[in-house]
């Protein structure tokens, strides 16, 4: 007799049982990267495509109505994809919404990815995009926030740490949707491994391994020394003080649930204003996989509301 005490998926997520347990693998990574990067060479509808050099581009969304001389909040989006697939086009709908609803200049960066471009290149590309945003004459450099999902959430967390350490750009906030924060996380870290969807332990090892310069051998084989590894992995940072207000959201059936809850706890302990939103029965990437579900709409709305508060943006 087999018993399974795994909890149910959230009732709004009716497609959950049909979703694959993971997405990117060693076998399909190249194909998925090619598919997810379709359209990245075209500007977004109503926006601009800016070339930062070295093959790095940013997709820029501005409010439909801009008053001359007015400085707007700025938002930098970082896309997900386990550090090894995806493109900035994924952020077009959200960035357009943020520009329209918050009156912000919202951009998404097509950072270079491993294994061709391991750490620190993706993070450096994100920082270059942040510097570009802060330098725009229509952006208030004191009201800039970062937002990202999954791997993009992890990069956003690393970017906030980098900005704190360098001290030249003071972020107003960070919004992290089920962020990928810890290279040590594996499937057993999940409360119910059989319930994982869209991202699992083997894929996580693949993504982190490539990001940390170990290729498909996994993060444990990284050539990085301990000090560099701490800078590369947000969850390995010992000092989280001085970071901007933070919003973190994650589902209970997400591989990253435990690491995200722990990161939120450590942020709060370090004196960082932190809001943690945990969704019972939600799997990784549920809001992208089932965007019309009520729980997904609420999840995204909470992120928009968090940014509004951080940036003092219009209602």
Structural features:
19% strand, alpha/beta, Rossmann fold, 315 residues
- Average per-residue pLDDT, rounded, comes to 95
- H/E order of the elements? HEEEHEHEHEHHEHEHH
Main sheet: strand order:
1-2-4-3-5-6-7-8
Q: What share of the residues does DSSP label as strand, in percent?
A: 15-25%
Can you tell me the CATH class?
Alpha Beta
Shape, per Cα inertia axes: globular
**Which runs of at least 5 residues are low in confidence (pLDDT < 50)?**
none
Structural class estimated from helices and strands: alpha/beta
Report, as a whole number of angstroms, the end-to-end distance.
Answer: 56 Å
In the CATH classification, which architecture applies?
Answer: 3-Layer(aba) Sandwich
What is the tally of helical segments?
Answer: 9
* CA-based gyration radius: 18 Å
In total, the number of strands is 8
Helix content: 25-40%
Number of structural units classed as domains: 1
Largest sheet: 8 strands, mixed
Looking at the structure, the CATH topology is Rossmann fold
Give the CATH H-level superfamily.
Alpha/Beta hydrolase fold, catalytic domain
Short overview:
Keywords: Hydrolase. The chain is α/β, with parallel strands linked by helices and 315 residues long. It contains nine helices and eight strands.
């Amino acid at each position: 007799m087999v018993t399974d005490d795994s909890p149910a998926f959230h009732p709004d997520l009716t497609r959950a049982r049909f979703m694959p347990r993971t997405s990117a693998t060693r076998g399909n990574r190249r194909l998925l990267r090619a598919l997810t990067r379709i359209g990245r060479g075209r500007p977004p509808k109503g926006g601009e495509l800016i070339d930062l050099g070295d093959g790095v581009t940013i997709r820029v969304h501005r409010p439909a109505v801009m008053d001359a001389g007015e400085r707007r909040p700025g938002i930098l989006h970082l896309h997900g994809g386990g550090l090894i697939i995806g493109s900035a086009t994924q952020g077009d709908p959200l960035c357009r919404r943020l520009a329209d609803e918050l009156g912000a200049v919202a951009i998404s960066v097509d950072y270079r990815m491993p294994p061709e471009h391991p750490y620190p290149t993706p993070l450096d590309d994100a920082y270059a995009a942040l510097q570009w945003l802060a330098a725009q004459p229509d952006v208030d450099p004191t009201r800039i926030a970062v937002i990202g999902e999954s791997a993009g959430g992890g990069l956003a967390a690393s970017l906030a740490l980098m900005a704190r350490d360098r001290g030249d750009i003071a972020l107003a906030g960070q919004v992290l949707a089920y962020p990928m924060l810890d290279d040590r996380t594996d499937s057993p870290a999940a409360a119910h491994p059989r319930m994982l969807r869209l991202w699992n332990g083997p894929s996580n090892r693949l993504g982190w391994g490539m990001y940390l310069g170990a290729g498909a051998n996994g993060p444990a084989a990284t050539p990085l020394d301990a000090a560099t590894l701490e800078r590369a992995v947000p969850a390995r940072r010992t000092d989280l003080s001085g970071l901007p207000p933070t919003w973190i959201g994650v589902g209970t059936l997400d591989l990253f649930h435990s690491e995200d809850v722990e990161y939120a706890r450590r942020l709060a302990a370090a004196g960082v204003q932190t809001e943690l939103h945990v969704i019972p029965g939600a799997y990784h990437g549920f809001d992208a996989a089932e965007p019309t579900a009520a729980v997904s709409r609420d999840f995204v709305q909470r992120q928009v509301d968090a940014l509004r508060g951080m940036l003092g943006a219009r209602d």
